[in-house]
Amino acid sequence: MAIKNLIIIALLFPLIAFSQKKDVDSSVVEVKYYVKFLIDTLNVSSAKEDMLSLRIGKNSSIFRSDFKESSDSLSTKIIGEAFIKGTKGDAVAPDLTGVRRPRFIQEVYYSNGKSLVYDKIRKNTFAFEPLNSPNWKLVDESKTISGYKCKKAISKYGNKNIIAWYTTEIPFQEGPYTFKGLPGLIVSLEDSKQYYTFLLKELKRVKKPINPINNAIKTTYEKYNAKREEVKNDPVGTFANATTHKLTKEQEERIKMNSQSKNNQLD
């Protein structure tokens, strides 16, 4: 326990020193979460897994898939190399088939008490304030998770019942996605049907940039959701409008099936 307390102090000490600086765009702590979730709540084989990072600074944090940065960086490199070859007369289409894409698409940027969710529809990224926010009820239960003594909290979040386990040993009022505001860091979180589960895997001191997406389309949740419903109700039509390629019947059926299966929205 003494060693563990020293680790926690070592993690928190830079935050105290960091608070004296004006630059708050870098993290002092990075939390790694494992996530497992269903794309289709009626199909257990649609389960996806990902590793997510929560970078926490003094007044801001960023939550995103680990593969987001690596895939973006690799894609940019491949496209850049293809462009250079094209300028030399050796035109070639960039091959992105080997780039591993994130499973958990949403990102959350938190600053000065407000969350901003980034989510994609087709190839467009939208940014909006979340419709829901947890109204936590603390429960007199405790257990040890990932080596931390945790306490229980529950909340309604949209149509989901959320169960969270948090530790006051790490006094950040942070957690995965938009789940924040408890008296300590969230270690484990899931909905009552286990359509989404998050589990803390690693906590370390690290200085990395906390940068939100710059090229997102700013909107409201209501407008974002209306667009999402439009695509869901007419997946073939909206896809056809976004491309110049003629779709085969087989492609149209595949698009319809993919759209109908995406019924597990965290928001």
Short description:
With 267 residues, the protein is of the alpha+beta class. It contains 5 helices and 12 strands. The protein has one domain.
**What gap, in angstroms, lies between the N and C termini?**
38 Å
Integer-rounded radius of gyration: 21 Å
Helix content: 25-40%
Q: How would you state the average pLDDT, rounded?
A: 83
What's the total count of β strands? 12
Structural class: alpha+beta
* Shape designation: globular
Uncertain segments are 14-24, 74-79
- Measured by DSSP, the beta-strand proportion falls in 25-35%
Lateral strand order in the biggest sheet? 7-8-9-10-11-1-2-3-4-5-6-12
Number of helix segments? Answer: 5
Number of structurally distinct domains: 1
Order of helices and strands: HEEEHEEEEEEEEEHHH
Sheet having the most strands: 12 strands, mixed
Could you give the topology of this structure?
Blueprint lengths: L1 H17 L10 E10 L8 E10 L3 E6 H22 L19 E5 L2 E8 L2 E5 L8 E9 L2 E10 L2 E8 L17 E7 L4 E10 L11 E2 L2 H13 L1 H7 L7 H13 L6
Parallel strand pairs: 6-12
Antiparallel strand pairs: 1-2, 1-11, 2-3, 3-4, 4-5, 5-6, 7-8, 8-9, 9-10, 10-11
